[in-house]
Amino acid sequence: MADRIRAHVFISGRVQGVYYRATTRGTARETGVDGWVKNLDDGRVEAVFEGDDDAVEAMVEWCHTGSSNARVDDVSVEYGDPVDLEGFEIRR
């Protein structure tokens, strides 16, 4: 089994009200990545991805585009040790 990594991501731009969270959840599940995604009060979206290196990197790259109606201005990523999340959910 590949080593798991964790990426904590903050996405800014027009990323709320454009199905960004729902599309992130669907893409993460298809990619086999665990974690969560939520809207922040300042208009950004926050997400955590855990999984094998290639899958997590694919999700980080996906965040630069996001859902079809999104306009992503910036993606910042912090890497850390996984905490063994299971499944992928939208947090409120």
Automatic annotation (TrEMBL):
Known EC number: 3.6.1.7
GO molecular function: acylphosphatase activity
Pfam families cross-referenced by the UniProt entry: Acylphosphatase
Entry keywords, A to Z: Hydrolase
UniProt keyword Cell cycle, yes or no: no
UniProt catalytic activity: an acyl phosphate + H2O = a carboxylate + phosphate + H(+)
Annotated catalytic residues: 21, 39
Domain (Acylphosphatase-like): residue spans on this chain: 6-92
UniProt-listed InterPro entries: Acylphosphatase, Acylphosphatase-like_dom, Acylphosphatase-like_dom_sf, Acylphosphatase_CS
Gene3D superfamilies for this protein: 3.30.70.100
Family: Belongs to the acylphosphatase family.
Protein name, UniProt field: acylphosphatase
